[in-house]
Write a structure and sequence with these properties.
Elements (H helix, E strand, L loop, with lengths): L1 H17 L22 E10 L4 H7 L8 E9 L4 E7 L9 H7 L4 H4 L7 H14 L20 E2 L5 H13 L4 E5 L6 H9 L7 E5 L7 H11 L5 E5 L7 H8 L6 E4 L5 H7 L4 E4 L3 H13 L4 E3 L5 H13 L19 E2 L4 E2 L2 E2 L10 E2 L1 H7 L16 E4 L5 E4 L2 H9 L11 E4 L6 H11 L3 E3 L5
Parallel strand pairs: 4-5, 5-6, 6-7, 7-8, 8-9, 9-10
Antiparallel strand pairs: 1-2, 2-3, 11-14, 12-13, 15-16, 15-17, 16-18
Length: 458
């Protein structure tokens, strides 16, 4: 019982420190509390927009994430006249704003509801922005004590041919980034990708590979991870095998010198900490969840990166969180580099892999209303996935080919153990429509499931 009590006290003390409150509970360093202004929510406006991808992301995201271009902007007007805004990536795993959530905050104090993660990303963000503006303080003052002026940020890219990674990293380095977070996939020869890419990188530029469990088991993963770490730019492996495999993940940490990151919460946090299954965490979600998870990570002295995905609006929100969270030491993943427009003014500028925390009231950046008008769209009735008219080929070194119409199909086949894992020479390509009957017939068959051929029909 004494050990359990001590552990609880440790988490409480570290959590208080993470939030800027001394262990003794003094209010001197506590988060800023808004004054007696009219903070009641007077109006909520929601606008859908479709923000285009840049060229290289566009030709690769189409296979798997064509729907990441759809956002909803939430605008909240308070009784005092202040307007706050936020965004939701509509087709993402967390954050949809509902009519019920809007009804719940109407006529109530924004400060009363801003910590409610169930409101959805855009509405919660807008409430925080509005309360901070009304209080004439930057948003991080509502979250805790500032610990860093410039949080770390990474450039994100999906899996793509090595040549496209080269283009992405060229843009990233030119814009001040020093870290690429990307996807390691068994339908590309990762060793070749690394060989091609690392030749073009400056020595200080790092790469973080997310396997999303695609190595399946520790017996094969250990040898493969050790092979890839020969490239000195490889800095982090994320989720090489299923996170629920506690024994396997413990074993992997003994097989590679590259630190391993895992999403917080799987396996349960006390199991993850007791069994030392990873070196760091990936933390995301709503404001309350992020702060609570970050407090536990701080208590355990585990670093993490923030993963909050969207345009520059969400990236600005993440900078405020990164400013106050002691263990947000690894480059944050926001994905705003994917798009032709950040949707904010001024745009986020990166130098030496870091970006300044905005100091103006609220989020500290203004919504680009001209861009909102330009990209405005009507709400969609269903998720725009899969993208139509696609034919994707996975070319095997044996000479065989597997054809698919979209990514979920081959994800299922790989995760189900029905296809070879990371063979040398494998690659994926999109087959353009040549107008032939053969193309149409093959696309129609692939739409029903994988079509596997021992050869490569033209």
């Amino acid at each position: 019982m004494k050990d359990a009590t001590s552990r609880r006290n440790l988490f409480r003390a570290a959590g208080a420190a993470c939030l800027g409150v001394p262990a003794g509970g003094s209010a001197a360093a506590a988060p800023y509390v808004a004054g007696a202004l009219d903070l009641k929510v007077k109006r909520v406006e929601r606008t859908w927009i479709s923000v285009p991808y840049r060229e290289a992301p566009a030709r690769n995201m189409i296979r798997e994430l064509p729907h990441w271009t759809i956002f909803e902007i939430s605008k909240v007007t308070l009784g005092c006249g202040v307007v706050g805004y936020g965004e939701t990536m509509v087709y993402y795993t967390w954050g949809r704003v509902t009519e019920a959530a809007v009804a719940r905050v109407m006529g109530r104090s924004a400060a009363e509801h801003m910590w409610d993660d169930a409101l959805g990303a855009g509405l919660q963000m807008a409430l925080f922005d509005a309360v901070a503006k009304a209080s004439d303080v930057p948003l991080y003052r509502l979250l805790g004590r500032k610990r860093r002026e410039r949080p770390f940020v990474s450039w994100w890219a999906i899996d793509m041919p090595a040549e496209d990674w080269v283009l992405e990293c060229r843009d990233a380095a030119a814009q001040g980034y020093t870290d690429l977070k990307t996807k390691a996939r068994p339908w590309f020869d990762l060793d070749r990708q690394c060989r091609v890419l690392t030749k073009t990188l400056p020595p200080h530029f790092k790469i973080d590979f997310d396997f999303n469990s695609m190595l399946l088991d520790s017996s094969r993963a250990g040898r493969y991870l050790a092979e890839i770490e020969k490239y000195p730019q490889v800095a982090i492996y994320e989720t090489p095998i299923p996170q629920s495999d506690v024994a396997g993940n413990k074993f992997l940490r003994t097989q590679t010198g590259v630190p391993i990151a895992m999403h917080y919460g799987s396996p349960p946090i006390m199991t993850a900490l007791k069994e030392e299954v990873c070196d760091a965490f990936v933390i995301g979600g709503g404001a309350s969840r992020v702060m609570e998870n970050a407090a536990v990570a701080a208590a355990a002295d585990k670093p993490f990166w923030l993963q909050l995905v969207g345009t520059g609006i969400t990236a600005a929100w993440a900078l405020h969180l990164g400013a106050v969270l002691s263990h947000a030491r690894w480059p944050a993943v926001n994905c705003h580099q994917l798009y032709t427009h950040q949707m904010i003014r001024p745009v986020i500028q990166v130098e030496n892999g870091t970006a300044a925390v905005p100091e103006a009231p609220g989020l500290g950046v203004e919504l680009d209303e001209d861009a909102v008008a330009r990209f405005r769209t009507e709400p969609l009735k269903q998720e725009p996935y899969p993208a139509p008219h696609l034919l994707i080929a996975i070319r095997w070194p044996s000479g065989a080919t597997s054809y698919y119409a979209h990514a979920r199909q081959y994800w299922d086949d790989f995760l189900g153990g029905r296809l070879p894992l990371f063979p040398k020479g494998v690659y994926l390509e999109r087959i353009a429509d040549d107008g032939s009957r053969e193309w149409k017939d093959l696309e129609a068959r692939a739409a029903q499931g994988g079509v596997h051929s021992g050869g490569r029909p033209r």
